[in-house]
Amino acid sequence: MINDIQDEIIEEFSSFDDWMDRYSLLIEYGNGLDAFPEADKTDANLIDGCQSKVWFTAEMQEGRVIYHGDSDAILVKGIVALLIRVLTNHTPEEIVNTKLYFIDEINLREHLSPTRSNGLNAMLRKMIEYAVQFN
Q1: Is 55 exposed, middle or buried (0-12, 13-18, 19+ CB in 10 A)?
Q2: Domains and CATH numbers, the chain
Q3: Residue of 25, 47, 50, 86 with catalytic role
Q4: Could you give the CA distance from residue 90 to residue 19 in angstroms, rounded to a whole number?
Q5: Any idea what the Cα angle at residue 14 is, between residues 8 and 17, rounded to 5°?
Q6: 3-state secondary structure of 127
Q7: pTM for the structure as a whole
Q8: Which of 6, 59, 64, 90 has the fewest CB atoms below 10 angstroms from its CB?
Q9: In the annotation, is 3 catalytic?
Q10: Calpha distance 92→10 (Å, rounded)
């Protein structure tokens, strides 16, 4: 379930008091992201509203949405990995109907610049849009 994954993330982040350590964790997530094909780094897959370049694609496999993403910025790539971890491999209905509370619980937005926070919102909108298209 999506909420189980959100709870895992909250627990992982709660073990760090310092945001520098949390940023390191995000970077670690990004380093673990599957390779994103260069052929998919197109304007069509580029997320509008992000300060950095961020690409997302999605596909359906056995009734579940599988997301792929990448960024040219190391911290943002970690955010991409975090969002993919939460939302990938779930049904479109689950994705559309889930409240993503982990973002506020780990205080992610308040530790991002306003432009990065806007980018986070743009990434989430695109991921939901993919789920709606598959639904």
Answers
A1: buried
A2: 2-134 (3.90.1010.10)
A3: 50
A4: 30
A5: 155
A6: helix
A7: 0.94
A8: 59
A9: no
A10: 23
pLDDT for residue 129 is more than 90: yes
Q: Specify the pLDDT at position 111.
A: 86
For 102, the token pair is 């982990």
Q: What distance in Å separates the CA atoms of residue 83 and residue 123, rounded to the nearest whole number?
A: 8
- C-alpha 131/C-alpha 45 separation (Å) is 15
* Cβ proximity of 108 and 9 under 8 Å: no
Amino acid at 123: M
User: DSSP per residue over 71-92, as a string?
Assistant: ESSHHHHHHHHHHHHHHTTB-H
- CA-atom Rg of the chain in angstroms: 14
Three-class DSSP category at 56: strand
Residues in the chain: 135
DSSP state at residue 40: G
Q: What is the mean pLDDT of residues 99-122?
A: 90
Closest among 21, 6, 28, 11 to 75, alpha carbons compared? 28
